[in-house]
């Protein structure tokens, strides 16, 4: 089994039910070991005028290798109506594979760890809920240390607990 950490985000349609369904779908890929609180965050990059995102993270124990898991994440996104046309555009669902064990990959189809995760408070805050001592496999920096380095993030609103309860 591999310990995978997946960032979830949505800002189109009905983000909360979409994220709940995404967590349910992730559960079919292995064992959900943890789900973070839900955060409301301002969009980063992309076209202006986008609605805020809802963001979370999931710790998944999965038998899938990184490429198979990434393909499964893309299938879950597509089932939620995600289309990939413009980078950093608004989306019905975004599932980013942040870590897959200690795997390191830097090719066109799979970048591990996620290349921008340790610089984004909207990814780190949910990861901190799951494991503040989780370390970047290349730099060794922990999630806690990265959040301290970034400083207070005004665009990341405090997390909501119990959001999976219907």
From TrEMBL:
UniProt GO BP: folic acid biosynthetic process; tetrahydrofolate biosynthetic process
Keyword check for RNA-binding: no
Enzyme Commission number: 2.7.6.3
A Gene Ontology molecular function term of the record: ATP binding
Pathway assigned to this chain's UniProt record: Cofactor biosynthesis; tetrahydrofolate biosynthesis; 2-amino-4-hydroxy-6-hydroxymethyl-7,8-dihydropteridine diphosphate from 7,8-dihydroneopterin triphosphate: step 4/4
Broad class of enzyme this protein falls into: transferase
Pfam families listed in its UniProt record: HPPK (PF01288)
Keywords: ATP-binding, Folate biosynthesis, Kinase, Nucleotide-binding, Transferase
CDD domains: HPPK
Protein name in the entry: 2-amino-4-hydroxy-6-hydroxymethyldihydropteridine diphosphokinase
Residue ranges constituting the 7,8-dihydro-6-hydroxymethylpterin-pyrophosphokinase domain according to the UniProt record: 5-132
Keyword hit for Transferase: yes
């Amino acid at each position: 089994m591999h310990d995978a950490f997946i960032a979830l985000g949505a800002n189109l349609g009905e983000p909360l039910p979409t994220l709940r369904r995404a967590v349910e779908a992730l559960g079919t890929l292995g064992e959900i070991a943890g789900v973070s609180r839900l955060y409301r965050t301002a969009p980063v990059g992309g076209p202006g005028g986008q609605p805020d995102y809802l963001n979370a993270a999931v710790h998944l124990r999965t038998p899938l290798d990184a490429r198979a898991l990434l393909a499964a994440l893309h299938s879950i996104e597509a089932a939620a109506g995600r289309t990939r046309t413009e980078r950093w555009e608004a989306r019905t669902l975004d599932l980013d594979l942040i870590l897959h064990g200690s795997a390191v990959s830097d090719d066109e189809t799979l970048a591990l760890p996620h290349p921008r995760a340790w610089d984004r408070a909207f990814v780190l805050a949910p990861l901190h809920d799951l494991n503040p001592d989780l370390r970047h496999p290349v730099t060794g920096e922990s999630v806690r240390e990265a959040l301290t380095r970034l400083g207070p993030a005004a665009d990341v609103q405090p997390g909501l607990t119990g959001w999976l309860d219907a």
